[in-house]
Structure formats: structure tokens, C-alpha cells
Design a protein that fits this description.
three-stranded mixed sheet, alpha+beta, 7 helices, seven-stranded mixed sheet, 13 strands, rod-shaped, 3 domains, 24% strand, Rossmann fold, Ubiquitin-like (UB roll)
Length: 269
């Protein structure tokens, strides 16, 4: 059994006494100021918990709301018509606005040919509209109807005083086919478009049948995928071979680069 000397026992007692004194000091300090620390820790704990709960639900996109709407290009359409159709109003979150969806809604307006929608990074939406003009008219049950280049019925006032090509419609699907054809012609050669008197779809020949005011024969253009070259080809024939074309009853331009004149069946290249 090991023996512990007097000095060692004394040192152990001193250390024990010192620890008791330190603990007593800590106890007295806590009894005076400890409640303050507990209060601070409790407040911080609640604040951190509430802050984390708010952070998890926080969506920065909700801070971006629509404040400004710019509309350009409209003459016949009012701001109210455009905004109501677009489904836009100030104060709505920018995260709920999609350019393609707004454009598709706007294209439901018959007076609209096209629209460009730009959704800004912060609080602005810009809408640039291209309004349509009548492209043709039809006689339906004794009433005249005007149509846009997209084949939509327009208010009759939009075509007042205009000499429009008259379209003969056999089936509803022909409306958009003829409107699209005339729109391409007007874009390629507006003077040629103004010379069109009547137009119809020839299903058997898979052609667009056109009568012009300044010639006596009908012209067959491609029913689909007509190009500017077809209209240019027609111009060259009529302007360059006016005497030869005087006896023609039908001119077939359905095949690019070739023209067939009937009834002579003479091929003109």
C-alpha cells in the first residue's frame, strides 16, 4: 500500500478547496446575472426558429410585381382590349407572366396579325402589336364578310371602301388556305395582289385558281408552299409576252420554273 506524504495531502486539500471556491463564485455570478443570459439565449432561439421558418417560405420572385405595361403599334385596338385579352394587370407577380402565353392569347384578336411580347427582368412588360388589314371578302348567305391574313372574320367596318379580292369558299378549311396565299402575294408583290379579282381553291388540280382584273385568263398557282418566284414568273410572262398571252385561256404555274398555257398546250420557259 502506497503512502502519501503530508505535503501531498496538503496540496490535494488546497486544490479541493480552490475548486469549491471557484464553484461558489460561479454560483453567485449566475444567481445575479444568469437569468439575463437565459433570457437572451431564449430570445435568440425563438428568433432563429422564426427566421428559418420565414426563409423556407420566402420566394424572391414574389417581390417582383408588374408595374409598367408598354403597348405600341395599336391603332384600331384599344389598350383595354389588349390588356384584357393578354390577361395582364399591374400588381400581378412577374413569375406568373409568360411571353408565349400572352402572345397566344393576343392572337385570338381578329384585328391582330402578330404580336411581340417582352417580359422584363424586374417589373415591365412590353407589347408590340402588328394590326391586320382585310385580305379578302366572301359572300355568305347574302352578306359580305371580310377576312384577315390569318383567316379570321373582321368587323365589316374594317373593309369599308376597300376593293378586296372575292374568295369563293366551298369548305371552311379553304378560308385559311386562301387567306394565307393572298397574304404571301401581298407581301411579295402588293401591286399584283391589288390586281386580283377572284380566287378559289381547285381541289381536283390541287391548285389556287386566281382571276386578275387586267387579263382574261385564269391562273393556277401552287396550293401549298407558293413562293415569291411564282409571282415573279407570272409578271415576266404577262409583261414580256403580252401579245402571245392574249389568246391564252388558262395559265398553269403550279410547277416552279415552268408555265403551261392552255388551250394551246404551249410550254413557255
Amino acid at each position: 500500500m502506497a503512502r502519501i506524504g503530508y505535503n501531498e495531502i496538503k496540496r490535494m486539500n488546497d486544490r479541493r478547496e480552490k475548486r469549491k471556491q471557484n464553484l461558489a463564485k460561479v454560483g453567485r455570478w449566475l444567481s445575479k446575472k444568469g437569468w439575463k443570459i437565459f433570457l437572451v439565449v431564449a430570445v435568440l432561439g425563438v428568433a432563429i426558429w422564426q427566421g428559418w421558418f420565414w426563409i423556407r417560405k420566402f420566394n424572391p420572385a414574389e417581390l417582383r410585381t408588374l408595374k409598367t405595361i408598354d403597348i405600341t403599334g395599336n391603332r384600331m385596338l384599344t389598350w383595354e382590349e389588349i390588356l384584357q385579352t393578354a390577361g395582364l394587370e399591374t400588381g400581378m407577380p412577374m413569375s406568373a407572366i409568360y411571353a408565349d402565353s400572352v402572345r397566344n392569347r393576343l392572337l385570338s384578336l381578329p384585328l391582330l396579325q402578330d404580336a411581340k411580347v417582352d417580359v422584363g427582368m424586374f417589373w415591365k412588360v412590353t407589347i408590340d402589336v402588328e394590326e391586320t388589314t382585310p385580305i379578302m371578302e366572301t359572300l355568305d348567305k347574302g352578306q359580305w364578310k371580310a377576312y384577315s391574313g390569318r383567316g379570321l372574320v373582321l368587323p365589316i367596318a374594317a373593309s369599308a371602301g376597300l376593293e378586296l379580292p372575292v374568295a369563293t369558299i366551298s369548305r371552311n378549311r379553304e378560308i385559311k388556305q386562301i387567306a394565307s396565299f393572298l397574304q404571301k402575294m401581298r407581301s411579295a408583290d402588293e401591286a399584283l395582289y391589288k390586281e386580283v379579282s377572284q380566287v378559289a381553291v381547285d381541289e381536283k388540280k390541287h391548285a389556287m385558281e386566281v382571276f386578275f382584273r387586267n387579263v382574261r385568263f385564269k391562273v393556277l398557282f401552287p396550293l401549298e408552299n407558293v413562293t415569291e418566284k411564282s409571282f415573279h414568273h407570272y409578271r415576266l410572262l404577262v409583261d414580256g409576252l403580252s401579245q402571245e398571252m392574249s389568246s391564252v385561256k388558262s395559265l398553269d404555274l403550279r410547277f416552279e420554273g415552268f408555265a403551261y398555257a392552255y388551250p394551246s398546250a404551249k410550254e413557255v420557259k
